[in-house]
Write a structure and sequence with these properties.
transcription regulation; about 20% strand; four-stranded antiparallel beta sheet; alpha/beta
């Protein structure tokens, strides 16, 4: 189980009804939440509040979300930043990742999707806060670098561990080969995308997923773990 007490989230959006809705929902989930309605307030509040997660709208008057993201990263804030954007364009996603954003959500979005993104970022960046994470039939223990499947320890290489952890933590989300390479192998990896297929095949063997019902292939899009 994931324990949320003491995990802090900063919401930044100039639309009060969105902030109120998200604030109530996240507090109900057990998070500690504060909010800001403009960029400057967000930067100042982040320094005081020291959030673990920042949910940051891109389109705000005055200081926009891009600039806020730059300033937060420059300040040394150790937080995971999830950008909210109304445009599903590659240029925007690349720009956000380049300046330090960790993830993005396209408006309009469901509250459940945002919760999943927040949980994924916490597991990736703050595993010590939540300890062992149970996700369906999996138990991921980042301290031990160990994954159990149906209570059985999987024999995984370090790369297999990182790949399966990334897939499981982001279950339900379609992940392209390029995204997987960036997150698991790193931006400076100079090899071929086919390496992802090789490791996926190995994981399916170890999970006895012969029919690809657990790790699904979405032709032309990537992979998705269904739990």
């Amino acid at each position: 189980m994931t324990h949320l007490k003491g995990i802090k989230i900063l919401l930044v959006d100039d639309e009060p009804h969105i902030v109120q809705f998200l604030e109530l929902g996240l507090i109900n989930e057990g998070y500690e939440v504060q909010s800001a309605h403009d960029g400057l307030s967000a930067v100042n509040l982040a320094a005081e509040f020291q959030p673990h997660i920042v949910v940051l709208d891109v389109m705000m008057p005055g200081m926009d979300g891009w600039e806020v993201c730059r300033m937060l990263k420059k300040s040394g804030l150790h937080a995971s930043i999830i950008m909210l954007t109304a445009k599903d364009e590659v240029e925007d996603r690349v720009k956000g990742l380049t300046i330090g954003a960790d993830d993005y959500v396209i408006k309009p979005f469901s509250f459940e999707e945002l919760l999943a993104r927040i949980a994924a970022r916490l597991r990736n960046q703050f595993p010590a806060l939540i300890g062992e994470v149970a996700i369906g039939p999996f138990r991921v223990n980042d301290k031990k670098k160990e994954i159990l499947y149906h209570d059985q320890v999987l024999e995984l290489s370090p790369t297999e561990y990182e790949l399966l952890k990334y897939l499981v933590i982001n279950h339900g989300i379609v992940l392209s080969k390029t995204t997987i390479l960036d997150k698991v192998w790193g931006y400076d990896f100079g090899g071929e995308e086919n390496i992802v297929e090789v490791y996926i095949r190995s994981l399916r063997d170890k999970l006895h997923d012969k029919e690809h019902r657990l790790i699904r292939t979405l032709r032309g899009a990537g992979y998705r773990v269904d739990i």
